[in-house]
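Structure first, sequence second, as always.
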């Protein structure tokens, strides 16, 4: 069932943009709402693209991508996963990629989307892979933009409990996040265009329900760390294209690893080439000098690659 309006755990600290809608559903004994944007092209080519965001993000950073694809005739669905953006912040939730994929499928069903191309960035790439493994018949193809989970970090990095990660999230400041993004996402070069990413996170940090959000960030970090998808690449049966910014070095828990090991993790040029060999008939696009978020750092280059993939 879909509905618009206020949702249970986050109040209107910021006004919800007019182009957002909400699907109300019950999951794990709770009434929750998924926030989403769904743009149906005026001159449709009868194809749908579903956009799946990363961990420190929401649908907001897909704005240019949504506008471009809609102009090209695609219907575009962008989703704030539960615990992210403007979707519900449950007080307790068992996060898994299976659950997030199932939530995504439920939303697609409610909108009568029978088949779609999934573009997954970062953590969204992990959700996209799980979705393709669970629902291959409705997945036309996967486009994975700097997906994480291409290596099993728990083999090399000491485990951090949810409690410890929660405390870190509660103490995090806007400046802390900027430093992290600059180093890990943008290879030590910050531009004013990236401020919108900080603004969205700052909105959540100042929400009165921020403790629930911080707990969910800790839980999703645990999900990423403990549920790698790299062992199941051989089971993917849909077409896959990897788009890898070669300057990316993103790694969950790098700071907990020893210096010798930390320097070897998150080698995305190597991981991209290794992954494309593990997936039948996969393709690899390498973007030189671009980091973790190609569609933000260099939208022109990113969207040219997307257009070519979708048209071929």
């Amino acid at each position: 069932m879909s509905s618009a309006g206020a949702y249970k755990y986050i109040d209107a600290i910021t006004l919800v943009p007019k182009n957002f809608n909400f699907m109300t559903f019950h999951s794990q004994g709770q009434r929750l709402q998924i926030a989403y944007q769904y743009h149906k092209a005026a001159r449709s080519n009868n194809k749908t693209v579903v956009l799946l965001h990363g961990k420190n993000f929401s649908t907001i950073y897909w704005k240019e991508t949504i506008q471009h694809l809609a102009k090209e005739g695609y219907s575009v669905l962008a989703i704030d996963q539960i615990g992210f953006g403007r979707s519900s912040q449950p007080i307790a939730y068992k996060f898994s990629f299976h659950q997030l994929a199932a939530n995504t499928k439920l939303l697609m069903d409610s909108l009568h989307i029978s088949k779609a191309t999934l573009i997954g960035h970062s953590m969204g790439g992990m959700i996209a892979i799980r979705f393709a493994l669970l629902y291959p018949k409705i997945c036309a193809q996967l486009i994975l933009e700097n997906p994480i989970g291409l290596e099993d970090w728990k083999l090399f990095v000491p485990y951090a409990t949810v409690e410890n990660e929660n405390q870190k999230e509660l103490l995090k400041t806007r400046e802390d996040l900027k430093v992290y993004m600059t180093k890990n996402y943008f290879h030590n070069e910050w531009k004013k265009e990236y401020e919108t990413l900080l603004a969205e996170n700052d909105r959540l940090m100042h929400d009165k329900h921020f403790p629930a959000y911080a707990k969910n960030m800790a839980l999703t970090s645990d999900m990423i760390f403990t549920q790698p998808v790299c062992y199941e690449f051989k089971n993917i049966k849909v077409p896959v294209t990897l788009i890898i910014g070669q300057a990316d070095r993103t790694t969950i828990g790098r700071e907990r690893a020893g210096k010798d090991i930390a320097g070897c993790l998150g080698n995305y040029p190597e991981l991209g080439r290794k992954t494309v060999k593990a997936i039948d008939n996969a393709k690899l696009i390498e973007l030189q000098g671009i980091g973790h978020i190609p569609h933000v750092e260099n939208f022109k280059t990113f969207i040219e690659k997307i257009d070519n993939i979708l048209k071929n």
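Margin note: The mean pLDDT is 92.
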